[in-house]
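Still learning folds. Look over my entry:

…
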Amino acid sequence: MAAPAQSRYAALAYRASVNIDPAQGPHTEAAAELSSQDTPSGPNPVSDDEIVSACLEHTRHLADQVIHGDDPHETASYIMGALLDVFATYDHAGGVYVVWGALTDWIELKPQEEALAKRHMVAAAREWLALDPHDDDAVRRYLTHWHDIVGYDGS
């Protein structure tokens, strides 16, 4: 029975990643195939908690890419895209979205500070990987810290 659970998690993680760029043709078709897996009793329902967990795991994978990849700015925008799936179900989605949105805006609005903004992206990614995104207190501390850095006051 481990295989179905693993494939279900893979499907959830994949579904979260598909929303990065829905215009990428083959991904849309594959996601539809994965999400239409049926159980003997009918369609395989996916709970909000499962979607949030898959999405958060995907954001952690993307954070690793921010650190080790070629373009932290592009990957940061993918983190924002992944979070859109859980805005209504993950209490911190909006706050995390603001962090990554502000970091990407920093490069776009102040290109002369691109190197500094990218260093902050890498630091934000490292800190995201160091915490448990299901730990409300840890995420609140992360958000307080990064909202201060990016100048977000919550209004």
Observations:
- The helical segments are 2-18, 25-35, 48-68, 72-83, 93-109, 114-130, 136-150.
- The longest strand covers residues 38-39.
- The beta strands are 38-39, 42-43.
